[in-house]
Amino acid sequence: MYYDMEGNAIDLWTWAELMGSPKRYVKKTETKNFWVSTIWGGIDHSFMWGRNPSIYETALFMPSLEWQEYSPTRAMALRVHHEFVRDAFRLVAKRKRRKSLYRQRRR
Questions:
Q1: What is the pLDDT of residues 40-70, one digit of tens each?
Q2: Does residue 51 contact residue 59 with C-beta atoms inside 8 Å?
């Protein structure tokens, strides 16, 4: 089943047209340590959980870590995006502290 950006059911041809729209890209955050991307995909990923259609995907990409979460609305997807960015900054800081401690111990 295919859905538009508001969560309304649509046919394959309408979905294909919307996939070509720049509006499908909701938000992107890039740093030298990670990349977070939120897009509208229009395909329901909630089939296993039986809830509202999860048609937005937020993904976090870091060296040795990838994580995805699906959301039913644009607002929820943006909230997940901000949480991923916050958590990625925390993880990067934690890794830097570990490297610093490791270097100090080796001296």
A1: 999 988 776 567 889 999 999 998 889 999 9
A2: no
Give me the long-range contacts of 3-7 (CB less than 8 A, separation at least 24).
3/42, 3/43, 3/44, 3/53, 3/55, 4/42, 5/40, 5/42, 5/55, 5/74, 7/52, 7/53, 7/55, 7/72, 7/73
pTM for this one? 0.83
H-run or E-run covering 96: helix 74-106
Domain ranges of the chain: 2-106
> How many Å is the Cα radius of gyration of the chain?
18
DSSP string, 59-77: EEEETTEEEEEEESSHHHH
pLDDT given for residue 50 in this prediction? 61
